# Entry
Amino acid sequence: MTTAIVFRRATDRDASSLATLAEKTFRDTYAQFNTPENMEHHCSKSFGEHIQLAEIRDAGRESWLGEIDGQLVAFAQLIVDKPCSAVPGKRGSEVLRFYVDASQHGKGVAYRMMDHLAGRATELGAAVMWLCVWDQNAHAVGFYERCRFEKVGTTTFQLGTETQHDFVMSRAL
Ligand SMILES: CC(C)(COP(=O)(O)OP(=O)(O)OC[C@H]1O[C@@H](n2cnc3c(N)ncnc32)[C@H](O)[C@@H]1OP(=O)(O)O)[C@@H](O)C(=O)NCCC(=O)NCCS
# Structure
């Protein structure tokens, strides 16, 4: 069954709750695979009320929140106009972060959020939506493939002292 979820753009007042959910979901997903030092390094430079406030105010980025009964359970960020190097010549939007709280996995929330982002990226004039995902994150890669994303390249991601390998995945809109 698909849980009833409402999506809205984050405002300044959401910075604190967005920071909390962003750090929680990042730790839930990756703490088991990384050293505490690398996790601390990444979290301290990526999450915090002032950091998410700056992201919310960034004119080139849209932060979307998913709420169930007024409770924040998911978020995603869209870089409005960023072409994918693996898909040249097409106007692109990058999905920079895509996280659903573990309590809502397997309930259709992620599909609803992806549909919402695809609709929004189309509205913004994108022909392609794309993202980077850790190549060991089989759950997310499987989900993106179910959402019609295809692997189009590879890139790296620096987590503290460790260089990790990502797939670049894209989907035509
Ligand atoms: C990735 C995420 C958004 C997926 O949402 P979800 O609600 O957990 O997704 P589901 O468990 O319903 O799975 C979605 C689909 O992916 C498929 N899938 C799940 N794990 C898979 C795997 N290991 N291999 C292949 N496919 C897989 C499922 O079969 C399912 O397809 P179905 O609907 O046909 O059954 C969510 O788990 C999440 O937020 N994870 C933590 C954050 C994260 O990893 N974000 C991505 C960062 S790039």
About this structure: The pocket of coenzyme A is lined by residues 25, 29, 98-100, 105-106, 109-110, 133, 137-140, 142-143, 146 (CB under 6 Å). The chain has five helices and seven strands. The chain has a mean pLDDT of 96.
